Amino acid sequence: MATMEAKNDTILSIRNLVKTYPNGTQALKGVSFDVKRGEFLVVIGLSGSGKSTMLRCVNRLHHPTSGQIIYRTKDGHESDIAQAEGEEILRIRRTMGMIFQHFNLIPRHSVLSNVLYGSLGATPTLKSLMGLFSEADEKRAMEYLRLVGIQDKAHFRAAQLSGGQQQRVAIARALTQTPDVLLADEPVASLDPATCHIVMDYLRRVNQELGLTIICNLHFLSLVRQYATRVVALKGGVLVYEGSPSDIDDAWFERIYGEGAKEVHIN
Amino acid sequence: MSQGNSNVASEKGASFRRTVLDGVVFAYLGLTGLAVLGLSEAELIQKIPQLVLIFVGLSVLGGGLSLLLNARGIKTLGWQIYAPPHLRMKSTEELATPLYRTFWGAQMIVVVAITTVVGVRMTEIDIFKLLEADRFHHAMRLFGELFSPDWSVLPKAIVKVVETIYIAFIATVIAVPIAFVLSFLMARNIMGGSKTGFAVYAVLRTVFNVSRSIEPVLWAIIFSIWASFGPFAGMLALLVHSIASLAKQYSEIVEGIEDGPVEGIEATGASRLQVVWFAVVPQVVLPYISYTVYRWDTNVRMATILGLVGGGGIGAMLMEYFGQAMWPQVGCIIFVIASVVWLMDAFSSHIRAAIK
C-alpha cells in the first residue's frame, strides 16, 4: 500500500537518460532520478553540465538518445516520453509549460497575444492562424496576467517591458496551457538580483497555490536554498547529488562546482 | 579515432584538388600559348575535339608535374590554396620572400598576365578607333541630338513608363505570396528536421537556382513567343525571375531568425504550422517588406530592358525610335526612364529606411 502511494506520488521517473548530440558531445551520460508531484525541484550544475539538455528531453524539444522518462498523469496513466512520436509529443508538451533564460516571447506582439499563445496547442491550427482564440482563452490569459501582476501592460508590445516583466509574461504564457508541470531553464540568469527574487517568488506562488510541479535549472546556490524543496546536481552529464537543499555544505559545493569554487550570495 | 580518419580523408581530398587545379592551370597556359601562337578563330572552331584532347593531356601532365614539385617541397598555387591549415603556417624565411620569387606567386602572375594579353586580343581593344575624326564627329552629333530632346513624345513616354511601372508592380504582387510560401519550404532550419522535408528543400533549391540563373531577358524572349509581344510577356518574364529571387532572399531571412521564440512557441505544444506562423513569421515580416519594395524597384528597371526584346512598356517605345535613329525622341525617352528610375530608387530606399 505504501509503495502504491509512493508511486502515485511520482510524476516523472527518469531512468538512464542519455543524450548524445550529432557532433558527438555526450550531454547526458545515463541520468536517473524521480520528480515528485507538487515539488519545487531545482537542478544545479555548471553550464555544460547537461541541465538544459535534461529539461529539453523532458518536453521533447530534444530527442533523447536512450533511456526512459516515465510520465504519470493524475489519473494514473503512464507513458514513456522518450518513446513518444508525432502528435503524442505535442500532447505531452501541452501539459508542460516552459520558461527560458531569454524569455523567448515574440517581441513585436502584444503581451496579451504572447500569453494567448499558451493556448495554441488547444486551439485548432486553422482557427489560431486567423487569430480566433476562444473567449475562455482570453479570459484565462487575462487572469494569469493578473496573477503575475502585469494586467495593466496587456496591450504593450512585449519588447517594451523590462526583463523581469517579460519573464512574468512568459510565466503567464506557460500557465495559460494549464499545465501539470512547469519547466524553468535558468529563469533568472539574465535578470538583476532584485528582479530575480520577484520572478522566483512568482514561481513559488505558482508551485504552492496552483500545485504545479516545478523543475527549475539554477546556478545560484543561495536561490536554491531559498526556493527549492529538493535538489539534484549534474556534473558532466552525470547525477552527482540528490537531496535536500540544506544538506549542500561546502564540501558538496566544491564537488559540484569544482575545486576552488566560491559561493556567491545574492540578496 | 574518427577525427583522425576525417583528417586523413580531408587531406586526401585537398591533395586531389590541388593536383587537379595545378594540372588545369598548366593545361590552360599551354593551350592559350598554342592559340596565341597563331591559330585563327576559324581554325580554333575546327580543331575543338583535338584541342580538348590536348587540354586533357596537358592537365594530366601538369598534375604529374605538380605532384613532383610538391613532393620536392616546392609550393605550387594549388598547394597554396588547398593545403590544410596546419601545413600552411609560413616560416619567417618564406614570409620575407617577395611574392614573385615564390613558385606559386610566379605561377599566379604568369596566369594573370597571359589571360590579360589574350583578353585584350579577344575584345579587339582599339583606342584609336574612338579617336578617328569621322567616327568622333558622328558620335558628337548623336550626343547633341540626344541632349536636345524632342518633348513632343513626352506624353506618350509618360503613358508608356506608367505601363512599365504597372508591369513591374503586378509581377511583384503576384510573386510575393508565392515566394512567401516557398521561402519556408526552402529554409534549411524549417525543413531540415525530417528526410522528406530535406528532400523538398533540396529539390526546390535546385529548381529555383536554375531558373534564377536564366536571365529575365531570355524569359522575355520565350514568353514573347508564347504569349505574343507586349506587356503580358514582359510581366511573365519578370514574374518568373521575381519568384526565384524573392524566394531565395526570403528563405535566407528565415534561416537567420532567432531560435528563442521558436522554442518558446514549440514548448506550448503548438503544431508545426502554428510555430511557423507565430514564431517565424513575426521575425521575418519587416525584412520581407524591405526586400519586396526593393524588388519592385529592381523590376521597374528590368521591365525597361525587357521592353527592348518584346516585353512592352517604355522599353518597347525606346526600341521603336531607336530603330529609326530618331535621336531627339530617344533622348526624351531616356530622360523619362532616368527620372523614374531615380524616383523609384529614392522612394524605395526611403521606405526601407522607415521600416527598419
The geometry of chain B reads as flat
What's the average pLDDT of chain A?
Answer: 89
**What is the terminal separation of chain A in angstroms?**
44 Å
- Biggest beta sheet summary of chain B: none
| Total separate domains of chain B | 2
Assembly state here? Answer: heterodimer
CATH homologous superfamily placement of the largest domain in chain B: MetI-like
Total of DSSP H or I helical runs spanning 4+ residues of chain A: 10
Derived from helix and strand composition plus strand pairing, the structural class of chain A reads alpha/beta
Strand numbers in spatial order across the main sheet of chain A: 6-7-8-3-9-10
Strand content of chain B: under 5%
Give the uncertain stretches of chain B in residue-range form.
Answer: 1-6
Structural class by SSE content of chain B = mainly alpha
Computed over alpha carbons, the radius of gyration of chain B is 28 Å
Question: What would you say the CATH architecture of the largest domain in chain B is?
Answer: Orthogonal Bundle
SSE order of chain B, one letter for each helix or strand: HHHHHHHHHHHHHHHHH
Largest interface: A-B, 34 and 18 residues
DSSP strand count of chain A: 10
Helix content of chain A: 25-40%
Q: Keyphrases for this structure?
A:
heterodimer; A: 267 residues; alpha/beta; 10 helices; B: 356 residues; mainly alpha; MetI-like fold; flat; disordered N terminus
Structure notes:
The complex is a heterodimer of chains A (267) and B (356). Chain A contains ten helices and ten strands. Chain A has helices spanning 2-9, 51-58, 87-94, 111-116, 125-129, 135-147, 163-176, 193-209, 221-227, 250-257; strands at 10-20, 26-36, 40-44, 66-72, 78-80, 96-99, 181-185, 213-218, 230-235, 238-243. In chain A, the strands form two sheets. A six-stranded mixed sheet of chain A has the order 6-7-8-3-9-10, with helices on both faces. A four-stranded antiparallel sheet of chain A has the order 2-1-4-5. The longest helix of chain A has 17 residues, at 193-209. Mean pLDDT of chain A is 89; it is low at 1-6. By secondary structure, chain B is an all-alpha fold. Chain B folds into two domains: 2-125, no CATH class; 146-354, MetI-like fold (Orthogonal Bundle). Chain B has helices spanning 2-36, 41-46, 48-71, 77-82, 92-96, 103-122, 127-131, 133-146, 154-185, 188-191, 195-213, 216-226, 231-255, 259-266, 272-308, 313-323, 327-354. Chain A binds chain B through residues 24, 59, 61, 90-98, 100, 102-109, 117-121, 125, 128-129, 170, 173-174, 177, 183, and chain B through 2, 260-261, 263-271, 273-274, 277-279, 282.
